[in-house]
């Protein structure tokens, strides 16, 4: 990765360069202390060298910051696309079927509870994308800032749709289970009444 290679290059260059600059500075200081006839020229070259070294260090630092910012932006785009794909995949997994009877409806309800736990794990990823977008937007302007907003909005809208669909299915399954439980209670009561009627009709009539 370019950022890691440059970090290594920066570390090595700074270390080796500083050692060499320190060596030349020591040499210049020794010449000046010894009262060399070209003291003024040596001091001038020493100052020029140190200024050039400071400029180079600043250039390395600026380049490092640019690469770090570029890496962070590309990581945001990657994370946003990946999170969006996962949210859309979960949306497609949401079934329409509610069950033909109480047993299947209750089984669907249990499956949906597990599904809700699964999508809840995605909420942390969505929140991270939103937080990263808010922070990066402050660092960029114009087209890049608009692109960051667009990626964040796509994730947030897909997430809101998924949460809405999931809640709607939970309510539908709850209503379906309640309906089947009611129908079972009605059926059980009718069977009980039929049994009572048969008992009554089976008794001997009074003479």
From TrEMBL:
Mind telling me which residue stretches traverse the membrane in this protein?
A: none
Asked whether the UniProt record includes Chloroplast among its keywords, one would answer no
Cross-referenced CDD domains: SPEC
SMART domains under this entry? Answer: SPEC
Which InterPro entries does this UniProt record tie to the protein? Answer: Spectrin/alpha-actinin (IPR018159), Spectrin_repeat (IPR002017)
Keywords assigned by UniProt, alphabetized: Actin-binding, Coiled coil, Repeat
Q: Which Gene3D superfamilies match?
A: 1.20.58.60
Asked whether the keyword Repeat is assigned, the reply is yes
What is a single molecular function from GO for this protein?
A: actin binding
- UniProt feature coiled coil, ranges: 112-146
PANTHER family according to UniProt? SPECTRIN/FILAMIN RELATED CYTOSKELETAL PROTEIN
* Protein name per Swiss-Prot or TrEMBL: SPTN2 protein
Species this chain originates from: Chauna torquata
The record lists the lineage as:
Eukaryota, Metazoa, Chordata, Craniata, Vertebrata
User: What gene does this protein come from?
Assistant: Sptbn2
């Amino acid at each position: 990765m370019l950022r890691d290679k440059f970090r290594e290059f920066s570390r090595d260059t700074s270390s080796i360069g500083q050692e060499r600059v320190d060596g030349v500075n020591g040499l210049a200081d020794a010449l000046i202390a010894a009262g060399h006839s070209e003291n003024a020229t040596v001091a001038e070259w020493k100052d020029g060298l140190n200024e050039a070294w400071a400029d180079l260090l600043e250039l390395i630092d600026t380049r490092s910051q640019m690469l770090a910012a570029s890496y962070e932006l590309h990581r945001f785009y990657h994370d946003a696309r990946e999170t969006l794909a996962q949210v859309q995949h979960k949306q497609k997994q949401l079934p329409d079927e509610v069950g033909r009877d109480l047993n299947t409806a209750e089984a669907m309800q249990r499956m949906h509870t597990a599904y809700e736990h699964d999508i809840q794990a995605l909420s942390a990823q969505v929140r991270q994308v939103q937080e990263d977008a808010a922070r990066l937007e402050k660092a960029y302007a114009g087209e890049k800032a608009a692109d960051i907003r667009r990626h964040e909005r796509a994730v947030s809208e897909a997430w809101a749709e998924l949460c809405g669909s999931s809640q709607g299915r939970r309510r539908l399954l709850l209503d379906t289970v309640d309906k089947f439980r009611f129908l079972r209670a009605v059926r059980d009561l009718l069977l009980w009444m039929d049994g009572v009627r048969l008992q009554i009709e089976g008794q001997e009539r009074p003479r």
